[in-house]
Specification:
By secondary structure, this protein is an alpha/beta fold. The protein contains twelve helices and 23 strands. The strands form five sheets. It has a seven-stranded mixed β-sheet with strand order 1-2-7-8-9-10-11. Strands 17, 18, 19, 20, 21, 22 and 23 form a seven-stranded mixed β-sheet that branches. Helix 8 links the parallel strand 17 and strand 18. Helix 8 crosses helix 12. It is elongated.
């Protein structure tokens, strides 16, 4: 039995088997699917878990309730890792009333064929369970159109759906005060940047709706229950959704035979010698792009480089630039370089991506390397690194 506060219990599960979240994002430390139970005059379940974990999940619920039924199921978010057990929950508790908004119920019917025993709520509506008074706040596009959060004003508990969540299974403890949270902070940034990152404006709108509401606990659907670190968690979401960055440089490159990699090393060294301490480098064919995107969200400056391939841009760089463009990232500095053997296309292709999709602020002169570095292109790489360092310094003046 995992009690959070008076009459509120954690009944979620851990997934340590899945390799890729949503078939896309690596899970080296697993992930949790969090669900919560409020036991009052009426019993309320908040969100469910992925259907593959239904057996341990229903046992968690029954360990607390015994034979007592569940009266309400609140669906804050319809992604199947949270709604996947809705259909089976109805089989165990056939009289349960599902609570959601209009867009929720469009999806409940589409996913599970359910269109009865529904209680539709709008922004600001309330539900009394007895001592616990629940209020619903609609937060559309954080990060699906139906998303909402549920506030238990009697206990100052926010059931936040995917908001404020992160990758990583829960290793025994549930509440942040019980565990070492060091591993979760960067995983929260990776989670946000890859899954929620495109929706900065809706996140800001949601934060405004919640501003000034006293909170003792934030119960997300992934990761720890936040209690001691609420201010840090909310501040992190606020900064990321405003695309606020730290001073630092991400250098990512594609390379086939090492020539482009050597250029990246020269650029990094020059930026370091010019005073930039936060520099991270990635071979885009080796590191999963979710980690690169995470650090692009963290740091102000980005330099990318790749060879020409098949008379175009090296495939992995094309993919990365497409992913970055899809996140609608703002307020970044960009430099670029490329290499070729007989027909140079990489440099112009990267510039086209920036002109048409990324719209980052160009810094320095792009470097185009024919076959391998020589004295001239080495000097140009050094100058590009220095130019980016100077641009970062000016941003922080």
């Amino acid at each position: 039995m995992m009690k959070i506060t008076n009459d509120i219990y954690y009944v979620g599960v851990n997934d340590r088997n899945k390799n890729l979240f949503e078939g896309l994002w690596p899970l080296p430390d697993g992930v949790s699917y969090n669900s919560y139970l409020i036991v009052d005059e009426q019993v309320c379940l908040v969100d469910t878990v992925e259907v593959d974990f239904f057996i341990p999940y229903i046992k968690n619920i029954q360990d607390i309730l015994g034979e007592r039924p569940v009266d309400y199921l609140i669906v804050n978010h319809m992604e199947p890792d949270h709604s996947g057990s809705v259909e089976l929950i109805r089989k165990y508790y056939p009289n349960i009333t599902i609570v959601g908004n209009k867009k929720t119920f469009d999806m409940v019917k589409g996913f599970y064929g359910i269109d009865t025993n529904l209680k539709q709520v709008a922004n600001g509506d309330t539900l009394s369970l007895g001592k616990h008074q629940l209020q619903f706040v609609l937060t559309p596009m954080v990060h699906w159109p139906e998303t909402m959060v549920t506030l238990d004003s009697s206990e100052q508990v926010l059931f936040s759906g995917d908001a404020f969540g992160c990758f990583g299974a829960l290793n025994g403890g549930i509440i942040d005060a019980q565990i070492n949270c060091d591993t979760f902070w960067l995983e929260m940034v990776r989670y946000y940047s890859n899954i929620v990152g495109k929706y900065g404006t809706p996140v800001q709108n949601a934060l405004k709706k919640l501003k000034g509401i006293p909170l003792s606990y934030i119960c997300s659907t992934h990761g720890p229950v936040w209690h001691e670190h609420i201010d840090r968690v909310v501040s992190l979401y606020d900064r990321m959704s405003r695309y606020e960055t730290e001073p630092g440089l991400v250098i990512c490159y594609g390379t086939m035979y090492g020539n482009t990699e050597r250029a990246a090393e020269m650029i990094a060294r020059a930026a370091s010698e010019a005073g930039i301490k936060n520099i991270v480098m990635y071979n885009i064919s080796k590191t999963h792009h979710s980690y690169i995107i995470r650090d692009v969200f963290r740091y102000k400056a980005l330099i990318v480089g790749a060879p020409t391939y098949n008379a175009g841009l090296y495939h992995e760089m094309e993919v990365l630039l497409s992913e970055l463009a899809g996140k609608d990232i703002k307020n970044h500095l960009l430099g670029w370089f490329g290499s070729y053997c007989w027909a140079g296309k990489a440099v112009s292709a990267i510039q086209s991506w920036n002109d048409n999709r990324l719209h980052f602020q160009p810094v320095g002169k792009p470097v185009e390397i024919r076959q391998s570095l020589d004295a001239e292109t080495t000097a140009q790489c050094v100058e590009l690194g220095r130019a980016m360092a100077e641009a970062l310094k000016k941003e922080n003046e």
